[in-house]
Fold this sequence. Notes:
Blueprint: H1 12-16, E1 24-28, H2 32-38, E2 44-47, H3 51-54, H4 66-78, E3 84-88, H5 98-112, E4 116-118, H6 126-134, E5 139-144, H7 150-153, H8 163-178, E6 183-187, H9 191-200, E7 205-208, E8 216-219, H10 221-225, H11 242-258
Parallel strand pairs: 1-2, 1-8, 2-3, 3-4, 4-5, 5-6, 6-7, 7-8
Helix pairs in contact: 2-4, 4-5, 5-6, 8-9
The chain binds 3-methyl-2-oxobutanoic acid (KIV).
Amino acid sequence: xxxxxxxRGITIPQIRARKGGDPIVCLTAYSTPMARFLDAHVDVLxxxxxxxxxxxxxxxxxxxxxxxxxxxxxxxxxxTEHACLIVDLPFGSYKESPQVAYRAGARVMAETGANGVxxxxxxxxxETIRFxxxxxxxxxxxxxxxxxxxxxxxxxxxxxxxxDEAARLMADARAVAEAGAFAVxxxxxxxxxxxxxxxxxxxxxxxxxxxxxxxxxxxVTEDVVGLFADFTPKFVKRxxxxxxxxAKAAQAYAEDVRARRFPGPExxxxxxxxx
Length: 275
Ligand code: KIV
């Protein structure tokens, strides 16, 4: 195992210090080329376990393994110089105990060179977050709509619309912050709840479907650029339609090959030049 060294770029303390300042810009990346396209423009690159659905066509994120996260984490690290790099801990790798979570987190950090890990859960994960952060593994929390709890929650749905759920979300946010997380993703909640939490806790909140009241925003890059068409959540803004461009390029290539227009003379090797 060779530990990649990524000494440059935005650090965890710098992200934490952005609380209440300029919005923190975060996107997901799963590959070296995508990381290279995004790196200069974002503060955080997240290797999200959403890669199971977006890249591998899985129906949920539950089938993603730690080996998959490490392989993609390494690939993204190769393309990242500027952004703070965070890798998701996948389902089944960290909820059993703080010790199990430490081993998963340490493996991800050592093998990918990530600056920190993200894990899902609120009050029930506070002890684990405290254990990891006390031992040098920076943790980004993730509360609200947590896709790894899809079945327990009865589906993907917004959280905090009722007063009792809003209070639970606030308790989760407080617990994650007080346990030592350097930032927390809040997914799928109403603006008033996101605003209350952002005012209340001392660490940056990163919203996804949680309004501009948060200290930063994150989206799945493939949603943003139109490379994932299975479904588009309400909270996504699409900035490009690359999927349509890929289909158009494939069609033009197919037409050229079938008409023998490709390859043309400019694509051919000439005979070896004699000296
Ligand atoms: O897995 C993921 O990509 C995520 C972000 C969308 C927050 O958790």
